[in-house]
Specification:
The protein contains twelve helices and seven strands. The chain has 389 residues and is an alpha+beta fold. The strands form two sheets. A five-stranded mixed sheet has the order 2-3-1-6-7, sandwiched between helices. Helix 12 links the parallel strand 6 and strand 7.
Length: 389
Amino acid sequence: MVTTVILGMLCVYLLCFCVMFMLISTRLADKKMGMDVFALGNLLLGLAYILQLFGGAPGWSAISVINHTLTLCAPVTYVLGAMRFFERPTALLRPLLTLAATYTLAQALVQLWLGNEARHALLAGACALLFLLMTLVALYGSRTFAKDLRVEMLVIALLIGGIGALNAAKFAMILGGGMASLDMNGGFQKVFYLYMSFLATVLPPCAVWLVLRRLTDKLRSLAAHDPLTGLLNRRGLMDALSAHFRSRSAEPAFLLIVDIDHFKPINDTYGHQAGDRVLCHVADVITATARQGDLICRLGGEEFVVVALRSDSTGVLQLAERMRAAIEKLEVPDLSRGQAIRCTATIGVSEQFASVQAFDECLQQADAALYRGKKAGRNRVEWVLVQGA
C-alpha cells in the first residue's frame, strides 16, 4: 500500500513538471533549449507509472508491454532533450518510434523464449546500462562541452548514477530471486520508488536552473558584445581589462585604435549592408591577426580597439603592421555588383598602461596618433608622441 501511494505521488510529480516544462518551452519561443522534449520525457514516464498502477500483477499483458516500452523510451527522451539543450539538435520522433518498435519486438521474443522473469530483467538491465552511459557522459561533459556547468553536471551524474545502481540491483535480484523481488510491498520496491520520487522532485528544478544559467549567460554575453561583429563592446572590454589587471600575473598592455579609411564613401557607394559586411570582414581579419589573449573591441562605427597583452613596443608595432597589411589585402565581395570591395586602415598606438584607470588616457594617446596618421595619408601605423621627447 505504501509503495502504491509513493508511486501515485510520483505520477503526480511527473505530470505536473511535464506541464511546467511545456509552459517554459512556450515562453522560450524558437529556442526551447530542450524543455519541450523534457516535457515529453516526463509524460512518457508518468504514463508508464500510471499503467503500472492500474495494470495489476507484473505478468504478460499489453499494458505491461506498453509500460516497459514507455519506461525505456523516457530516459532516451531525456537524452535527446539534453542534446538540444547543449545545442546538438537531433531528430526526436523517428528515434523514439524506432526504439519503441524494436523494444516491443524484443519483449515479445524474450517472453516467448525465456519467460516473464527474463522480460523484466531485460528492462532493468537495459535501464541500468542506459543510466550508466548517461552518468559517464555527464562526467565527461563536466570536463569538456559543459565546463561552465561543471558543478551542475557532477550533481546530475551523481543522481543518475544512483538510479542506475538501483536498476542494476533490480536486475540482479530478478535473476536471483525471480518475480518475488518485484513485490510492490517489498522493501526494495519502496526504496526504488522513493528514490524515483526524490529524482522527480530534484531534477526538474535542476533543469530549470540550467535554463536560467544559460539565459543569464546569454544576456551577459549580449551586454558585453557588439551584435554585428561579435567582438567585445566597450563595456565588455572594460570588464575583461579589469579581470586582467586583477590577476597576479598581469603585465602592462598597449592600446591600438584601428580605423577603416574612407568608410563613409564605402557606405554611400555600395550601401549600408555592404558596409556592414566590410566591418565584419575587418573584424575577422583583426581577430585572425591578433595574438591569443589579446582583447578586441568594436568601439563604434568603423573604429576598433585592440589591447595587446604581454608584449613590448617592438612586438606591438609588428602586430599593428601585420593588421594594417592584412586589411589592405582584404577583398569583401559585393553581392549586388559582383565585384570586390577593398579598404585600408590607419592604426594609432598608445604607450604602455598598467591599470584600468589609465585606459581613457591611452585611448586619447592612440586617437591622437591615429589623427596624425590620417593627416599623413592614411593606411599607416602611427606611434604616440611622448611629451618632452
